[in-house]
Amino acid sequence: MVFVKRAHGSWLPSLYRVALTKQFSTSSEGGGKVYELRTYVVHPRDQRQFLDLSKEWLHLRFAHSRCLGYWTCELGGGINDMVHIWEYDSLQHRAEVRQKLAGDPAWIGNYFSKILPWLQRQENDVLACLPGTDVKEAPGKGVYELQHVTWSPDPPHAASLVKNLARPGATLLGSWYAALSKPYLGWLLWHHIDLDNVHKTALKTDETNKFYVIQSKVLTPTPWSPLK
């Protein structure tokens, strides 16, 4: 296998380079949008304060870009994790939003400066929709599940695999791959009719397609989440 050197000095298979080159060139991956998956790990003693302040002030953040959903982790991850997904027209759009937020005194003074001491850790990943897919609306209230998976490093191949996934009582709302790192990493956002359906319809390892579920988080919508 041929390897190519990246700017920061690490090495990746040339197949990954091809996939990364193509990642924003297909026509129907969520309209060319990018998505940011953010996870805030809040100290247990500060969780109630975080939730109350977020309910009061997160409308300031929603004015800048679309939030798909904002959840607390119920099962499968840190129970103090706050998981949220944001949509942007491009990486440049994200940079502009972040710059505006940094210069917004109401946002900084009333919210962001106050939550910083409560955060043990912040994580984020930049995602792109698999080719031929887009983000769907939830069919109603229910239970959400975010799966972190591995699959083919070729996004069109991964898209064909996802198209054939079937889970009775569940709706696949979004399917993404890592836009800036390793395209063999992916995320699936599911809506379930109830909590038991998450377990009853759990996805199995598919050795033929090299499909593996790394982690599955069951998520509960916050009061301000667009997805309820």
Automatic annotation (TrEMBL):
A GO cellular component annotation in the UniProt record: mitochondrion
Entry-linked SUPFAM superfamilies: Dimeric alpha+beta barrel (SSF54909)
Pfam families: NIPSNAP
Any GO BP annotation: mitophagy
InterPro entries: Dimeric_a/b-barrel (IPR011008), NIPSNAP (IPR012577), NipSnap_domain (IPR051557)
Family the entry assigns: Belongs to the NipSnap family.
Protein name: NIPSNAP domain-containing protein
